[in-house]
Fold these 3 entries.
Entry 1:
Amino acid sequence: MLLRRVGIENIANLVGHGGHFVCSASFEKRSLTIPLQFAADVFDSVVICENINHAELHQGHGATLRDHFGANCRMAWLNTDNPLETGDSLFGGIADLARDSSQRIVVDISTFTHESLLMLLRVLYITRQCVNVTLLYSKATEYSIGDRPENKWLSKGVGEIRSVLGFPGRVYPSRALHLIVLVGLEYQRTIDIVGRYEPTEISLGYGRTGDLPSTDDIGHHGFWKVHAIYEGAREFTFSPLDPIAARRKISDQVKRTDGYNVIVAPMNTKLSTIAAGLVACENDNVQLCYAKALVYNYHNYSRPGEEVFVVELEGEDRDNL
């Protein structure tokens, strides 16, 4: 796995021509940031994923992407209320691309939901014959725009808590449960997940960027609110922007409780969600879970940035995807 950081103005030249492109239309302006950097005819085909049950909240971003790529694109309609429908649509829209061993797949992962992104990874794993998979992530400069750090929010309320389709793990009733959570801003969802599973062991992951003081890290306030409730939980840090390093940290936590059932809840960045997905692809004992939010911060969710993270999956990484 290779990780690079480039300016948005350089992404088109770095990616080049040919292959297949997959992106997601959402209410975030970031859903347009990367796709609109590419000319309409750069890719052999384009798949635009969009949650049909939320399409009216997307401010016409799906239509903008369709107009931009024209006849070269097709839609894959997803549904956050129905993971089976989402899985079927992703498999139908992506599987044939992944079977084309002469081509590559470029995926803008920025605005997929965590659940649909993990399902997409599983589809690529099932049909992993493509020569190269490139993941692109547009980093936001701010979340919950304009709010004070302690008041920032991305979603409110929790609906169904479920295992991610394609990542059921192996759960034995006779075994103790180790719950690993990559905590983000949405601390209430984390609290609800812990309450739902009532694990024997809890590991709370704190996403830390470089050497910044902890109070400047995204998710700082959420992490400590969760930790105040579950004081006996084990703490560990991981990089929210480096899936290579995060993958190692998550694997270390999984190995720490050998003989336990293990559930991982990736609640931080999409890059760390990729890391959790790779761990679960490598280890079928690991279950991934998702807590569906009831309301999102539609109008002030994020501010698009000028930096793109480029993750190249090659060799063993691609085999484990």
Entry 2:
Amino acid sequence: MVPTVVGDVVRAGTRSAAVVLTGSQNRSELTLGGNGGGSGTIGFSEGDERYYGFSFNVLEMTYGRAGAHNLVMQLKSDGEGSPAFGLQLWDSAGRRGLWSHGRAMGGDRYLAPIAHGAWQDVVVHFRASSQDAGSYELYLNGQLLDARHGVSTIVPGHHMAYIKNGIYRNGAEIPGRSDIRLDAARLGSTWAEASIR
């Protein structure tokens, strides 16, 4: 499923991306810089440092649980396999909200509750590396939420990473309806360039 452009719920301007999955559908995602045909994707190689910001609003969610992906953002490495850095929505161990995913983030960890029907502003300051020379700082609504240094934000053995937003889930394991809005994606070299606040 491809996200659609809508004007019903927006963070900035007059349009946002609607990401809706139903039944056992697995994915509806956008690639930063991608044109939908595999070209134009913005990649990050060893040592690249950037700030990436985006906003999301959960209208309805079939939450993931341990063992089932439910990613809303990935710093995805080239080739196959799970990302080294990912953000997902889970309801597990009595904690519903934003969870980390991937080796760079120390695995699946609960990070923060997420209110439905409210915009969540995310900024990730990251350094790309496949050689444990990477780092990230994760901000939610202007507050530092999580940070790690000396990690591989590119999966070791891979050459670059790129950004994906939307929903990527194990639809057969967590079937149902999920509906979010994405808006205000920004990439820059400074906090000011990536933050909507």
Entry 3:
Amino acid sequence: MTAELNLKNQFLLAMPGLTGSYFGDTVTYICEHNAQGALGLMINRPSDVSLKELLAQLGIDAEVALAQVPVMVGGPVSPERGFVLHSLDSRFEASLDLGDGLMLSSAREVLEAIAVDDGPAEYLVTLGYAGWDSGQLEREFQENAWLNCPAEHRIIFHTPFQERVASAAEVLGIDFRLMSGQAGHD
């Protein structure tokens, strides 16, 4: 892999060789990737907490039905921190524009807006994130730990979480059920 590898706004699909590891059977949206490292959010692993429960824990009264909206496990780093990946239709001062029509925020104001149905039309709430140090993700690619493909909003926001890995693999024309966990090089 060259130093020019930029995975921002891409999905990382865990290769079958990662099955049984923390990232096994996951798809991760990469929010940032630069010389310092990478930050991403797993988008297909629901936590045991609903958005309504999370808001209640934060003392935010939800005026809309959010009991069925899962909060996702975003990754192993800072699992006590919440992140909201959302569409551009609602802008918040603390939101970071990721490009590709997406924003990222960890600000309470986004959750407060969602609770009163005044937030972004599309959003995904996670606890924690996935982080890689400088060069770490590139090394993992050389070790065949990941595949990448362009991120698609429909997969992030509209595909049932249990179908997101297969849907992301389909973007590449791949059926993960047919893949081996063994690498094909020396």
